[in-house]
């Protein structure tokens, strides 16, 4: 089981799984995009063991490119871990204050976001594909935490995980216009005259959303690995049948 650990200290562990040809289904972690669900559960169980928990401590959502988020409690333990049907429905971001719950999000080019509040102990994950970025899911969730969970954005630390690079994320006018309408993404886009396509950095746009929500720039890190180019990346743009990375965060006791 190949994983890239982004954070591992006395308070939390967080990281992302990687594509691995030696693993069942190349290390795919997604029940919604697989050939054999039993192999996905095998992969998930290996991940759980590697980070010091059981599979029934995973909590997963049925991601729909929405701007919806959900507060996870101990009552949610195991939701979506072994079955799509038990996942938290129509949700693309999860957060919790509870220890020993592995919050999970699935991506193959989309931007995974991990957040941690060093004051309150809150942890969270966000799935921000380009549609989620247009809907400002990250900005909205941080604003919600600020207003409803007494979370000070200055105490947040954000890690933006591996995703498709600006070089490989090429779009037509309609998607460009939606990013343009955000009013703050212009510097993260360029036009390629040879291909008549626009190129957008979804990661940098998400970073800007964090900054607009009040997170200090110094508290934001980015994994610039391109999931399209890198052979350890799952890329939906490269292969519509691609598996998925699992990005996780778990607060420790």
TrEMBL record:
Role noted for this protein: Purine nucleoside enzyme that catalyzes the phosphorolysis of adenosine and inosine nucleosides, yielding D-ribose 1-phosphate and the respective free bases, adenine and hypoxanthine. Also catalyzes the phosphorolysis of S-methyl-5'-thioadenosine into adenine and S-methyl-5-thio-alpha-D-ribose 1-phosphate. Also has adenosine deaminase activity.
Reaction catalysis annotation: adenosine + H2O + H(+) = inosine + NH4(+); adenosine + phosphate = alpha-D-ribose 1-phosphate + adenine; S-methyl-5'-thioadenosine + phosphate = 5-(methylsulfanyl)-alpha-D-ribose 1-phosphate + adenine; inosine + phosphate = alpha-D-ribose 1-phosphate + hypoxanthine
Assigned keywords, A-Z: Hydrolase, Metal-binding, Transferase, Zinc
Protein name stated in the entry: Purine nucleoside phosphorylase
Molecular-function GO terms, alphabetical: copper ion binding; hydrolase activity; S-methyl-5-thioadenosine phosphorylase activity
Organism of derivation: Rummeliibacillus stabekisii
Family: Belongs to the purine nucleoside phosphorylase YfiH/LACC1 family.
Regions that span the bilayer: none
Cofactor: Zn(2+)
């Amino acid at each position: 089981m190949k994983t890239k650990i982004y954070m591992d200290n006395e308070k939390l562990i967080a990281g992302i799984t990687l594509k691995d040809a030696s693993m069942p289904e190349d290390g795919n972690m997604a029940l919604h995009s697989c050939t054999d669900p039993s192999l996905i559960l095998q992969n998930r169980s290996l991940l759980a063991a590697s980070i010091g928990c059981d599979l029934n401590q995973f909590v997963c959502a049925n991601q729909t490119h929405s701007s919806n988020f959900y507060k996870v409690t101990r009552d949610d333990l195991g939701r979506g871990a072994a079955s799509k049907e038990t996942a938290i429905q129509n949700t693309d971001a999860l957060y919790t204050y509870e220890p020993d719950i592995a919050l999970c999000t699935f991506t193959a080019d989309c931007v995974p976001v991990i957040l941690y509040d060093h004051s309150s102990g809150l942890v969270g994950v966000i799935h921000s594909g380009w549609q989620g970025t247009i809907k400002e899911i990250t900005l909205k969730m941080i604003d919600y935490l600020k207003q409803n969970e007494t979370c000070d954005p200055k105490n947040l630390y954000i890690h933006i995980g591996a995703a498709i690079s600006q070089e490989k994320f090429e779009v037509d006018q309609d998607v460009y216009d939606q990013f343009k309408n955000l009013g703050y993404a212009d510097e993260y886009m360029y036009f390629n005259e040879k291909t008549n396509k626009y190129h957008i950095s979804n990661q940098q746009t998400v970073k800007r959303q964090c900054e607009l929500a009040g997170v200090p720039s110094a508290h934001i890190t980015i994994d610039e690995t391109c999931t399209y180019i890198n052979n350890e990346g799952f890329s939906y743009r490269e292969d519509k049948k691609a598996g998925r990375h699992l990005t996780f965060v778990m607060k420790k006791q």
